[in-house]
Amino acid sequence: MESARQSGNWREMRFDGQCYRTDNWEKDVRICPEGEVHPGQSTRVAYQWRPSFSGNIKVTVHAHKADTGGGDGVWVGTFRARDGVGMEAKLGEFRIGGGDNTGRTETYSVTVDPGNMIYVIVDIGGESTYDKTRVYIDIN
Known about the structure:
Blueprint: E1 14-15, E2 20-21, E3 30-31, E4 36-38, E5 45-49, E6 55-65, E7 74-82, E8 86-96, E9 104-112, E10 116-124, E11 133-139
């Protein structure tokens, strides 16, 4: 999770036996099994992957709304980052509307090495109501 939106200060979340959650006031922020994520009003969530090799990879990201009862949707961004430097390259981004239970799938090609990380970040569209989303990531 990001300590504050756009801060670039990422930290691990606490596992409560079912989901990873924040320890702050935003109790609905979570990453759970089967791809369920929920960003908060001040907290973005992300999956992080660290390669143990150098080479070319493909990152496929699919996202769709799991709670389509309202809200303004979510933003999904995929980045390559480097330890000690931060975000190096935006691989791509897309939005999912509040009622979109079909979603979108994007595939990005990128070169990585052991100093890199791949982040798939999920953020609110404008407010966090009804933002339970399913995100599936395949890296090969």
